[in-house]
Amino acid sequence: MVSSSVVSAPVYAPPYVAGASWVQTAVGPSLQIVPTPSGRKVSGERAADVAWREVLALAPDGDTPGMRAQFDCHWTFARLVDPDKPSWNLEPDRPVVSADQMVSSRCNPGFAEE
């Protein structure tokens, strides 16, 4: 008798964001986003859109120019480079830049990470 086993990829379901809150830092206001364990591991094209909607449900005033681009950069790269980073910090005072500039600045265009 031949036994076969099917290994399926884990499913990481929403929510992807545990919290989003505004704090004041040395560089000004910062929206600190805390991903859930699913948010740290999920893949797929639509997951970032779902996560961003969750952020805006928690902090509707976070939808300002450049903030989604910072979020996308963290979503794409911070999860790989520093998967256990406690929060992803988005600052509305950062300049709006190209995708290449965003990546080369390590998701922190305009000035150093706080």
Count, helices: 4
Task: State the secondary-structure class.
Answer: alpha+beta
* Overall tally of structural domains: 1
What's the average pLDDT?
Answer: 93
Spans of at least 5 consecutive residues with low confidence? none
Order of helices and strands: EEHHHEH
Q: Roughly how much helix do the residues carry, as a percent range? A: 25-40%
* Count of beta strands: 3
Molecular shape: globular
Strand content: 15-25%
The separation of the N and C termini measures 61 Å
**Strand order in the largest sheet:** 1-2-3
Radius of gyration: 16 Å
Report the major sheet.
3 strands, antiparallel
Protein name: DUF2599 domain-containing protein
Pfam family, one: DUF2599
InterPro entries: DUF2599 (IPR019719)
Helices and strands in order:
Blueprint: E1 17-25, E2 28-35, H1 37-41, H2 47-58, H3 67-81, E3 88-90, H4 99-104
Antiparallel strand pairs: 1-2, 2-3
Pfam family, one: DUF2599
Organism: Gordonia alkaliphila
Protein name: DUF2599 domain-containing protein
What does this 3D model show about the protein?
The mean pLDDT is 93. The longest helix is centred in the middle third of the chain and has 15 residues, at 67-81. The protein has four helices and three strands. The protein starts with 16 loop residues before the first strand and ends in a 10-residue tail after the last helix. It has one domain (17-104). 33% of the residues lie in helices and 18% in strands. The protein has a three-stranded antiparallel sheet with strand order 1-2-3. By secondary structure, the protein is an alpha+beta fold.
